[in-house]
Task: structure prediction
Amino acid sequence: MQRLLARLVGWQLRYLLVIGFVLTTAITIAVGTPFTYSVINSYLKTAEDERVGRDMNLANAFYDLKLKDISATAGRLAWARDVRQSLIATRQGNRLALQILEEAIDNEIGNLPFGTQRFIVVTDAQGFSITGGVATKGKLERAAPEMDWSRLPIVHTVLTTHRAQAATEIIPADILSWVGLDKQAEIPLKYTEKAAPEPFDPREGTAGLALVGVAPVVTEGGEVIGSVLVGHLFNNDFTLVDRIKEVAGVDTSTIFLGDQRVSTNVLDETGNRAIGTRLAQDVYDVVLIKGQEFTGLAYVVNQWYITRYQPLRDHQGQIVGILYVGAKQASFLRLVDTLRRQFLLIAAASVLLAILIAVPLAWSISRPLTDLARATRQVAEGNWSVRVPVYGHGELGLLAESFNIMVETLRDTRDQLVQKEKLASVGQLAAGVAHEINNPLGTVLLYADILRKETPEDNLQQRQDLEMIVREATRCKTIVTDLLNFSRQNEVLAQETDLNALLADLVEEASRQELFSKVRLVKELEPNLPKIQADPFQLRQVFTNLMNNAAEAMPDGGQLTLRTKKGPTPGFVTVEVQDTGIGIPEENMKKLFTPFFTTKPIGKGTGLGLAIIYGIVKMHQGQIGVQSEVGKGTTFTVTLREKLPAQILKPEQEGLLQ
Result:
């Protein structure tokens, strides 16, 4: 592993970044896949439960609606005045009254939708049928009279309690024969895999499961004179289960008599309705034996379904059957497979997308570093003009910006070191030359002045020659003095100095000089400028020289501004000397502080003024800079410390400044 990591570290950064992006994406997908699959399975389990729960609620709603319709029909007929009156008259042998009863039954059946299966029976107070009608397969037939319907427990209960009842009931085959439905109810039991060994109800196969509503017929005096029974047989009738499927969107629904399917839209392996097949043993135990709902995976006929089973009870609370709804597990498994394929597709697309994003991103990250490495080599080879592009404001941008600042600082430091070496060399030479020339030059000046004074007034030519000697010797002595001053820039006699007061004095003095007669002097002094530790005499020389240069740069007049302010960083102050003169050409900017460099005519300058200024500022641990634009003016900026470092001060000065 260590060898592999060591080998990877040796690769180019862009490749490492691409590999890192791809590996991160792949690992995230690999770690997240089990969790995602768990979430998908959990979601599907919840969806399955919610789906079959919704389906069962809808199926119950349709089932209850059917039962209420049957109960309402029984109640409507039982409370009809003509039915009551006809029932009383029929007991007295009135044939016309019997016809009225049959017409009432026929009207009720006639109002049903075409194809609806329904049977209606009117009994007397003992439960014997008087008349009835049966609607099946679009035909209307009469029920057998004089049959003892009180054998049906729900009829017996209504006649004895005088209260209407509506429930799911098992009707034996012989009673169904009275309304001609015994053949319809007959459904042979079929072998079903995983079913219980024996049927739940021994009547399965011959008896019928029906929705039954029974209402007593009561006279105005409160006497029960009969009952009206209305029923709907489920055996081999699929109107309800198909309506639940079509209208409610339920995949499959079934009505069981006991554990036998008597009405269903579940199909067997041949594609026919699985009528006669039986319930699986595990569901049988829960629903029929324990009387509980069953929700979950169940084997239905020949395949697995996501199901819910609910027991059906008769009017006495006994379990007589089951209402079932379900969806094929295969459809959910297909959904799971689809989701998994889509997830794998998304994962592959994510890896591909990570590569597509990682390649340009890695290039954009590594390119600045490559540029930086290339620039570093160029700097090492001595190319101080190299710069790297700054990309944005992030870490790479800051790194590039810092590199550029570093190169600029190193170049300035190098130039300053070179300048200091030049100044030191020139200073040593100037000191030696000045000392050697100063004494002879003083002698020449002394004797030339004596000769000038001894020369008669009428010898004009000789006096002019001697005055020329004195004037030029004086100029040479000034140059020698500048050389001596230049060579003595290693001492700073520091004291607490008020820059604003110093500059104000210089402006006052300059205002009385001929050189500044055409110059407008402006002071922009920071009121709260702190006092600094400096040599005021040397600073006076610095700013006097800068002001004189500025005035000479404005022969036709202009504005000279002296500006002070805090900064640029804490512990420093800044002085700007700004003119509106002729400006300095670009080619002369780098040579301004070189000793003996001057743009003035011969005899007008020594070229030591700015070199001396530079040396004084550096001795004060300060900085001097210049900005100029030809034709618009020049600004010299001097930055000084508020407090000088201890190594610059002599011991006696430290005590004085404390």
In short: DSSP finds 16 helices and 18 strands in the chain. The longest strand covers residues 208-218. The longest helix spans residues 13-79. Residues 295 and 308 are 4 Å apart (CA to CA).
